Amino acid sequence: MILCAGEALIDMIPATLADGEPAYLPKVGGASLNSAVALGRLGADVALCTGLSTDVFGRMIVDHAGASGVSVDLCDFSDRPTGLAIVTKRDGHATYGFYDAGSAMRELQPGDLRTGPVPPSAALFGGISLVPEPCGSVFEALCATLKAAGTLVMFDPNIRPAFVTDDAAYRARIARMFALADVVKISDEDLAWLTGAPADDSAAMDAAARALLDEGPVMVCVTRGAEGVTAWRAAGDLHVPATPVAVVDTVGAGDTFSAGMLAGLSRDDLLSREALIAASEPELAKALTLGVRAAAVCVARAGANPPWASELDG
């Protein structure tokens, strides 16, 4: 089983009413929930692990997850409200304003989250769930526990700078998560934010990616939008080009890539640190390609709408 630990919330998407008045439509979202849904649609055994509300938005999240085969049995349910993300789109790219004070996820306490009687084969962490307290510490502690139990840890910072209020504390947590991770997926924009290296300077990006390997991961994957993804290992780098597509929007693209790669690794029994170290370039290229293809379908349609296996395998 693959565990997706982190945020599940409601994206308030800009819309226009029939009379021309602006409005917002509630859509289920959140990095971890998006990845879990993508994994479920690709046929993986997947569970979401987070704090969920029993309010109307929480029920929307549960229904959305269940429709894609995602288990919510490991979630903590409370009557606290669901967090909201107000989305603004410009030139196909989304920015977010978050409203989560007192939410079901943010107020998670130590001991609230469960992982089941058997540790998952892999666990994906990242996103805004690692920024605020107390939930940030809860998710970090869960990551350390699973790492010690032998679970393959994948980490995608998925940074939202506008949500970061304590820069030093957040950067320190990110550094600790890098040390725990077996696989890091990071966008060029996030890598630039963390390191100060210009995102349009390929040599600087490559150097920053190689430096992350010294923090502990077996593999560091840097996604570069239309330029594809480069995976760095001690043995060298492997590049997979992007699938050409007309971009509608980028919501959920990175989350879907992470899910596709994990699904690919799972299909070939590569969900362990030892297996990743021993994996051949063709084996890794296969998993990376599945992630790239899945992300391409996602960006070609509105919202975080990952593909089903039949859309990729047919």
TrEMBL record:
Keywords: ATP-binding, Kinase, Nucleotide-binding, Transferase. GO terms for molecular function: ATP binding; fructokinase activity. Gene3D superfamilies: 3.40.1190.20. Pfam families: PfkB (PF00294). One of its GO terms (biological process) is fructose metabolic process. Residues 2-307 form the Carbohydrate kinase PfkB domain. InterPro entries: Carboh/pur_kinase_PfkB_CS, PfkB_Carbo_kinase, PfkB_dom, Ribo/fructo_kinase, Ribokinase-like. Belongs to the carbohydrate kinase PfkB family. This is Carbohydrate kinase. The lineage of its organism: Bacteria, Pseudomonadati, Pseudomonadota, Alphaproteobacteria, Rhodobacterales.
